[in-house]
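go over both lines:
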Amino acid sequence: MMHWKWSISACIAIASIVIADITTVQAHKGAKGVVMERMMAMKSMGDGMKTIAAMVTGKAPYDASTTKTIAAEINQHAVSIPKHFPKGSIDGPSEALPSIWEDWDGFKVHADQLSKLAVQLADAADTGKAAALSLFAQMGKTCSGCHQDYRQKKE
C-alpha cells in the first residue's frame, strides 16, 4: 500500500517537472541578469529531478552515484535560491509572483526544505531505490508547493 502511495506522489512530481520544463524554455526568451540566472538554476534542478524520476520509476536503471551527484547539485541550487530573488526582480519574462517578497520567510522555508531533502537524498542514495523514491516524492511536493504559492500559473 505504501509503495502505491509513493508511486502516485512520484507521478505527480514527474508531471509537474515536465510541465515546468516545457514552459521554462519559452520563459527564458529575453531574460537577463539575476532572472536568467534563477531560470537556469530552476531548469538545472528540473533536469536533475527528471533524471532521478526515471531511475526511481524504473524507466532507467537506478544508480546511487548519479543520484548522489544530482542531489548535491540540487542542494547547491536550493541554498542559493534566496539570492536569486532580490526584492522586486519580477521585470521581464520572470514568472515570480510578488508573494515571494510579501511572504519572504515562507519562500525561504521552501528553499530550506528542498535543501534539507536533497542532502537526505544524497545521504540515502546508497540504501537503494525505495529510499530515493520516498525522498524524491517529498522533494517534488516541495517544488510543487513553492511553484503553487510563488510562481505565475501557466495558461
